[in-house]
Write a structure and sequence with these properties.
This protein is mainly alpha-helical. Helix content is about 70%, strand content about 0%. This is Putative sodium-dependent multivitamin transporter. InterPro entries: Na/Glc_symporter_sf (IPR038377), Na/solute_symporter (IPR001734), Sodium:Solute_Symporter_SSF (IPR051163).
């Protein structure tokens, strides 16, 4: 649960704070206040979406626990990525049109995200690369369509590449964590600190990407464990004679995935088992690695240079600016208090000296 919350927070913060797709959507509104309102209104819907995804996974596991479609003799699917479509078609098969409606909804949401991504890539390419590199080039709508076509073809090619690497959901989580976590760390360093510089942040990003990629794609002898599953699916004859009941499935022999390490008996952990990190924690590791290395690397580089670059307050986060202003006001009040105290002390000393001289004069008289 904690890994899901941590990964979800990092990915969501990166998408809302440093994603070209989300920023481009928010800039379509009239002013900043409406953009903030739209962002805040989307938070409950986004949280509900993630909760429903987790609930959907639990329902699928509970539904197929006693009849695993992946390991059954007549397996209707070949990969775990096909569980959701198979669950929809097998559950709603008695309702004509509903399975197709659910599948089309999944595809429409995917196409919407891909179209926004392609549009953002086209905008960044034309504005940040083509125009600065070729100032005399007049980028038109036709050029942007060609760029979108190229990026669409690349997306299709990357889809086949990711599908060949293994579990599609796992690869999407790993790649998303590799990219979004350092991106979020860069924005946090820029908005919340005044010590970060370009060289230190680049070093932090490179080390974060290298470490996360090493832990994500290194050959691992320990596969990821699955929850216990049973493989006593009722046959067609048993269904007709009603000879298979829930109690027989409950006490059936246990059969789990062939690539899992789950076992009823405990086993000693080896060094390879200890050096194992779930792919759900890759984004958290990448974020903190980039933050720590980027910040301290920037401090070391500033010390070697002998000077630091002053950051205007307008580029800092409002929370950081308020904290800085409170600290500045506190320092100013302390300075004023010290100055007043010194002035009062000097006046008291002068008054004491005058009183002493007056007393001595009266005594002399």
């Amino acid at each position: 649960m904690f890994s899901v919350i941590a990964h979800g927070m990092i990915i969501t913060m990166s998408e809302y704070g440093g994603s070209q797709i989300q920023v481009q959507r928010l800039r379509t509104l009239k002013n900043v206040n409406k953009s903030k309102l739209a962002a805040f209104l989307s938070i409950p819907m986004l949280v509900s979406f993630h909760l429903l995804c987790c609930l959907c996974g639990l329902i699928i596991y509970a539904y197929f626990r006693f009849c695993d479609p992946l390991t059954s003799p007549d397996s209707p699917i070949e990969a775990a990525d096909q569980l959701l479509p198979y669950f929809i078609t097998s559950t709603f098969s008695d309702l004509p049109g509903l399975p197709g409606l659910c599948i089309s909804g999944i595809f429409s949401a995917t196409l919407s995200t891909i179209s926004s991504t392609t549009n953002s890539l086209t905008s960044v390419t034309s504005e940040d690369f083509l125009k600065p590199i070729f100032p005399g080039l007049n980028v038109t709508v036709f050029h942007n369509k060609i760029i979108s076509l190229v990026f669409g073809a690349l997306c299709v090619g990357v889809t086949f590449l990711v599908a060949s690497l293994g579990h599609l959901v796992r690869m999407s989580i790993v790649i998303g964590g590799l990219v979004n976590a350092p991106n979020l760390a860069v924005f946090l360093l820029a908005a919340c600190t005044t010590k970060a510089n370009e060289e230190g942040v680049i070093i932090g990003m490179l080390i974060s990407l290298a470490l996360s990629a090493y832990l994500s794609f290194i050959p691992n002898n320990k596969p990821y464990a699955f929850l216990p599953l049973y493989n006593e699916c009722p046959s067609s004859e048993a269904e007709e004679s009603n000879s298979t009941t829930f109690s027989t499935l409950l006490h059936s022999s246990e059969n789990i995935y062939s690539n899992t390490t789950f076992s009823p008996s405990s086993k000693q952990e080896t060094e390879d088992d200890l050096f194992h990190l779930s792919y759900m924690w890759i984004s958290t590791l990448a974020l903190f690695t980039c933050l720590i290395v980027g910040y301290f690397g920037s401090v070391i580089i500033d010390c070697l240079r002998g000077k630091s670059i002053e950051v205007p307050r307008m580029y800092l986060s409002p929370i950081r600016t308020r904290f800085f202003e409170k600290q500045s006001n506190t320092d100013e009040q302390e300075c004023k208090y010290k100055a007043t105290y010194v002035e009062f002390d000097e006046r008291s000393s002068e008054t004491g000296i005058n009183v002493t001289h007056k007393t001595q004069r009266e005594t002399h008289l």
